[in-house]
């Protein structure tokens, strides 16, 4: 293994020499070759054989590497495999041995990376918990809406039944009046109801025989009346009213639950509005700054329509030397392209990504604007990577690495060139 690698960066010579002392790996082309070496017994010390036909690559996740480099800087945390020069034929073996090893300037950096990754995982757990809580509330809201709807239907049904019973009660009342008119003795005897010593006095000495006879008479009268009057109507009315009261109580509880959910929704809406206002302020600030850098002497902003807030919509306003234009239609095609590009990049700064891909965004622009785009990207997006397709030198001059395509003997080829900046630094 030591014969297969060498460092290309003098800054890491000491680390590489130290690694040489720890390496006891022998790279062989096939498993059979390794078996022959072991069988012949000519190895002088204990080693690990790495057959190229069986070795598995073991490399760190690219996103994890990018997060570590964003935390401490690319120059302070590098992949060990990238610091070693070796024959491409043993690339798989190098990835197996050094693919998950990071080389840092000092011992504090790995601890920072570890703490940052633990913090990131903690935030992810919190975010997942909050998302689950929101989903839980939404499900409860849907269930309560369905229950409210069902209760409303049931209430309407019972209200209809109550109306029917009341109509029946009115009809029975009319029937009772008819009976009073039909049997005149009722009106005549009515004044004696409940009086002591009368036939309708139930507080005196109890006469079983007389009571039994009266009971028989009343049963006979009841049977006669039951043929004409529905005695269950009042009981049905009472039951319906009790059920209606229960439903009213349920409705009241549902209204309280609904109010709590509405308050939660209002709080979420308020939080959403605050986030929108915050996003508008930052994007508006970056939009104006980026556009001014692309087109010196100009200003740009995102304003809500007259008398409205950012929640109602935004309009793009552009000024040349403090003279605000009434419409984007007054701008040239190239100027509108710069406005659109500035707005997109301003939104990207609000929610940055590790990498961006731009395809000939300078196609309709002249060389000076292209030069400004390249300078702006290096200035405003120092922590991001860009892959840009361009045909203009103004963009090339700001690139760290150029990949050029051309035809060679009828075949499309790609060449890689590292730019050297004015301060002598090479691009990464």
TrEMBL record:
One Gene Ontology cellular component: protein-containing complex
Transmembrane segments: none
GO molecular function: ATP binding
One example of a Gene Ontology biological process annotation: chromosome organization
Organism domain of life: Eukaryota
Domain SMC hinge: 21-114
Entry-linked PANTHER family: STRUCTURAL MAINTENANCE OF CHROMOSOMES PROTEIN 3
Name recorded for this polypeptide: SMC hinge domain-containing protein
Organism annotation: Plectus sambesii
